[in-house]
Specification:
2 copies of one chain form a homodimer. Chain A is α+β, with helices and mostly antiparallel strands. Helices cover 36% and strands 27% of the residues of chain A. In chain A, the strands form 7 sheets. The first copy, chain A, has an 11-stranded mixed β-sheet with strand order 3-9-10-16-13-12-11-24-27-23-22, sandwiched between helices. The first copy, chain A, has a 5-stranded mixed β-sheet with strand order 18-17-19-20-21, sandwiched between helices. In chain A, a hairpin with a 6-residue loop joins strand 6 and strand 7. In chain A, helix 3 crosses helix 7. The first copy, chain A, is globular and about 80 Å long. The two termini of chain A are 29 Å apart. At the A-B interface, strand 2, helix 3, strand 3, strand 4 and helix 4 of A face strand 2, helix 3, strand 3, strand 4 and helix 4 of B.
Chain lengths: 493, 493
């Protein structure tokens, strides 16, 4: 592990390689034998579980319930909604057979050609179609609405170029699918869930995000409006971290889902869907970590505090063990997850490097001399600062320190984003700035044509039109046509 | 809902139909548009979530960590372990293509014949193969062992005859996969996890189970020993509720997973795997429920207590609302999940029938007269007994009552199993008894041949050899050959 750390590429040398190595070296995830599919290792999964648990609680607080819908979707369902099929039908995993048989030539097993499905099944790339087909039987009156359902599931999109967590063929996510009696209620729900994502990102991931709406060109296939939270990574590139869609009546019409309203009239149901995925793990890693390894926000760290003993002999270790035992109990009683690592087969230096690599927010080190002095060494992972603190009451100081670290890394990420956000008013300036990274606030004429030309020439996309973008008269940086507000351009993951 | 209850088939009329109807009427699950795949509805999923949470805590208490492995498995992996391929390769979902394209004839989308995979991928029926292929890179020394990993996942087995929860093509489960340095440690782990399952079944599901070992014929494909918990349903049929496998070195050999032991020698790793699935939902429903609907054990009920107001006018309702509000708060503070249903669009009688159908353990009814008298009506779902109780301190009495119900339904199920367990010593008696259902304790000569003949003639299988079966000299009921202990025969789900 100490060697692994030594080998970690520096961010300044190659940010992309630093990320790829860090994911593997910190035991978060790895490539599997199946192209594009990852294995999420226990340490990485423990972080994902904490994210899941918190998001799930937040969803439930808004009245959402969980359910589960089938993994496989009949091929014909995908064609029902015209935009949706364009977006999702192309790169997907197709199940065509339901049986294998022994190879007649004795070489393992082969697909049984007689077990061909009448209609092929698709591994869900997203579940609007199968869910709205189900909702048809669940909804008949306004009394059945709103229907607020979420599922935690795996989905599959056959991506050609994959990167651990950021873009994988199979990924884990949650997808909320709500049904409403009115357009206004559905729109409000889509925005409400965007704010849930924003709050989660900021309070738990320490990830500042811009909340905004996507342009028509960047909308979810089948949505009337796509809301997004956009984060900035350390290299100045944007990472779309969660989206919430107002689907209008598109899926209700495609799957014939109507309800009797209060005026006793038959009407199509209004819909939203919203999701975040294991991609958030990528955002978490890339936002806070450094050349020494991961930096985890205390609110999501599987181990918040590690205690490492230093000792010369078994007697000293016993002394430290005895001193630490009640401290561990007090941490646990406070709901702080703590690990006392007194394993005898690794040197303290090795442990220090390992827990740094793993991003444990606070490290405590204690030896015989500390005990004699009534002190303990405290190291905070975000700044790597060390200090000697009184042993007495250390739990309370660590508890405050964890909150301080949480705030500090959020503020650091926020400052970075602010420093890397630029107002640009000319096309020359735009082309120059986009090479240096960051968010560019610029005027745009509102057409897909211009958006696509800018993307072609600079690889920059419109990340979003911020919800709080002030009205401001201006001229499109590309065409010079009039514009009412600035949008955010960036290169993105 | 009241109508739905009225229509529920009685158990005595048709137990199987009663079950099928109950699952749907109580809003637990339903068939989906994809053959053999179910939709788990919010109320059913809420029960499954409680089961998951509890099991997950119990696994973690034994040192197990969660991780996630790919959904898809290369076809060739299945052939690596000779017994495993026989058991699982046959009825599985095969992914052969990775792209759809627009139908040249304009009818939706078709499989793109040019997007054929070089090697077909199988949707995991179970994950031993992909996991042991991964473990090869995780294990090199005894210091890497034991490796104790679990995953919560969906799996797929192409079943021809499916029933909601009991046997579905796709189902949700957890699969633990552990790796050990010694045979003894792996065997002990397989048995430890069996006891975790047994404890969970008894303490949370109120489901008495027999812990035992499967015969060679009934073993998991690839295991040296399969341990099982077997439960008895109300119709006297057995339901295998969870299994834990000692896999020996079979998968380590198939995927070349070796480690350097403490003596510095290279050795194959020892393995276990163990799983329970949404099938447990079927066991839960069938064990306790009655002709009025579900009966849920309080430890797993999403709503433990429902409070229904009775009132003549809005003023009375306001009075009841005011009286109930602090009671609800006190229940919540005690960690009891409570629902106060003062919805004005349904009559109390309708609500009573609905919550009975949904199996809510305790119902409280309160009206103006109760408030005047300082009383509240308490109905327990298991016995349907009603009583009037003092309003003062009702939370504590309900809390005790919930525990009483939990114990009572366990004892009732246990008594049923005991009354339906028979020692049988002759073949004539065996054939007669098996028609009446129940567990038959009988001697068997230990051969697969005899086991299969008995199954052919009576449809009875050997559910297990109980771990606590006393040694007893006897003669096989079928062949008359000598036997050392009785095994459990039953017809099964």
């Amino acid at each position: 592990m100490a060697n692994e750390l030594k080998d970690l590429t520096k961010r300044a040398v190659n940010y992309s390689q630093w990320y790829n190595e860090l994911v593997v070296k910190a035991d978060l995830a790895e490539q599997s034998a199946v192209r594009g599919c990852m294995v999420i290792k226990p340490y990485g999964y423990a972080i994902w579980e904490k994210m899941q648990r918190q998001l799930d609680d937040m969803f439930k607080a808004t009245g959402v319930q969980n359910a589960y819908f089938p993994l496989l979707i009949p091929k014909s369902f995908l064609s029902r909604e015209a935009d949706h099929v364009e977006g999702f039908a192309k790169e997907c995993a197709v199940v065509t057979h339901y049986r294998l048989k022994n190879d007649p030539e004795g070489k393992g097993v082969v697909v049984d050609p007689e077990a061909r499905l009448e209609e092929e099944l698709i591994i869900r790339p997203t579940s609007e179609t199968i869910i709205w087909n189900t909702y048809r039987n669940w909804i008949s009156s306004y009394r059945d609405l709103p229907l607020l359902v979420n599922q935690w599931a795996n989905v599959f999109r056959w991506e050609m170029r994959t990167r651990l967590f950021l873009r994988t063929a199979e990924f884990l996510w949650q997808e909320g699918h709500t049904a409403h009696a009115t357009k206004e209620e559905a729109q409000a729900k889509a925005i409400e869930m965007l704010h849930v994502y924003g709050d989660f990102a900021e309070k738990y991931m320490a990830l500042p995000v811009v909340k905004g709406v996507k342009t028509a060109n960047e909308r979810f296939a089948g949505a009337l409006e796509t809301y997004t939270i956009e984060a900035m990574m350390q290299d100045g590139k944007a990472l779309q971290s969660g989206t919430s869609h107002f689907l209008g009546q598109n899926f209700a019409k495609a799957f014939d889902v109507k309800f009797i309203n209060k005026e006793n009239q038959l009407e199509y149901v209004w819909a939203t869907s919203w999701g975040v995925s294991t991609r958030l793990m990528g955002a978490l890693i890339m936002t806070h970590s450094d050349d020494n390894g991961l930096v985890l926000p205390p609110h999501l760290a599987p181990i918040q505090v590690v205690i490492v003993p230093v000792y010369k002999n078994a007697e000293q270790l016993r002394e430290v063990d005895a001193c630490v035992a009640p401290i561990v109990e007090r941490f646990k009683a406070m709901g702080i997850s703590v690990k006392y690592d007194n394993a005898d087969n690794k040197r303290p230096g090795f442990k220090f490097a390992d827990y740094e690599l793993k991003g444990v927010p606070v490290r405590l080190v204690i030896g015989a001399r500390d005990i004699a002095n009534g002190t303990i060494e405290v190291m905070r992972r975000d700044t790597l600062e060390k200090s000697s603190e009184p042993l007495q009451g250390i739990e309370n100081r660590v508890s405050s320190l964890l909150e301080e670290i949480q705030q500090n890394i959020y503020q650091k990420a926020l400052r970075h984003r602010e420093e890397m956000t630029f107002k640009v008013d000319t096309w020359e300036e735009f082309k120059e700035q986009i090479e240096k990274g960051g968010f560019i606030l610029a005027h745009w004429d509102g057409t897909t044509e211009t958006e696509e030309k800018i993307k072609e020439e600079t690889k920059a996309t419109i990340r979003c039109i911020p919800l709080d973008a002030p009205e401001e008269e201006g001229r499109c940086i590309y065409t010079g046509k009039p514009s009412k507000r600035r949008v955010i351009f960036a290169r993105n993951y």
